[in-house]
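Researcher: Next sequence.
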Amino acid sequence: MTDAQQVHELVVLDNDFVGSAPPEHYEGWSLADKAYEASAYWDAVNINVDNLLIRRFGVAAWSGYITELYASHQRQFFMPAQEKLGIPNSDPPAVRAAKYHLMSNALGGIRTRISVESSSKAWIIYLPATGAMGDQTFGEEHWLSIFPGWHARNGMSLGAPGLVFVATHMVSRGDPFTGGYFLDTGAPVEEPADRYRQAWGEPAPPLASRHCAELSSHDWPEDRRLKALRNFAVHWAWDRMATALEVFGAEVAADLDIAVAQSTYSHLPILAALSDEQGVHGVASSFAALLDMSGWAVEEVVADDGSVSVVVDRDPIADRVSQLPEALRSLPYQAVLHGWSGAAAEMGAKIVLSNGSKQTWKFERDGAS
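Model: Next structure:
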């Protein structure tokens, strides 16, 4: 056979799974597989919501929203998590506050360190992600909104009105970390604005004094840590959507639709690979898997007409959504419905959401496909 007659195989460059093979069907996934994929999916929703709000309302309005978002999360999680994380009540307030951010963010996949300088001064250090190309362009505004929204409120929650947070470093300014320290001033700080301070360029604690989070392996076995990683991303995404509706009103709903759609389209190759079923049943199984890996308890019910209903038995974010004004409560779910519908249509199905005695996602054949 001459060179001209040789038959060569074609190399398909779809780039759906760069550097790895397509995932196996969902039944074969480990808890770690589920936690990392759910975290990646909802982290993408978080980023997309931020980008769309900045484009729609501008950085200043978005910064105010971030402060409200982190204040909301602080109210929900800061005090209830103290015992869960094993933070002793006997620790000084500055240390308790720093330990919370150290441990909770480490469980969420963020590189954190603590340095306890004294009983009244404790540093919290947020390191850049390993291998990351750099902080996002709006990173500084993000942190400058986070610190007064959360860190500066910890003292009042702990019954320590003299506790303040002092920001000293910012990766977006070329510093090796973002963060600062909690300082117990020893006297009540009356004005909320005075509980957040800035001291850029103050010397950082030495490397040898910076320590990673440490949790009891008995209290925090691997499965619990993986669920915490998943929940970190899931709750931030839904709180982000709920707070956006509280701050900007119903007009922001279309932006939330787009944010979920962007995340879903980028994860479509993975979704499509989750089920070995074909047609509507396969699409329903894929989205049921997404709900399951994200912490929902669901059951698939096949109807005689060929439709498949994914019935929700446990909704982990129902409490947060219930805090919205009644007129807005359906909108986070509608955002997910609209965000998923385009991806489902690509796979040959349409979705109908109903909220009877149990929330139900019904998948039917898309007549346009």
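Model: The two ends are 45 Å apart (CA to CA). The mean pLDDT is 93.
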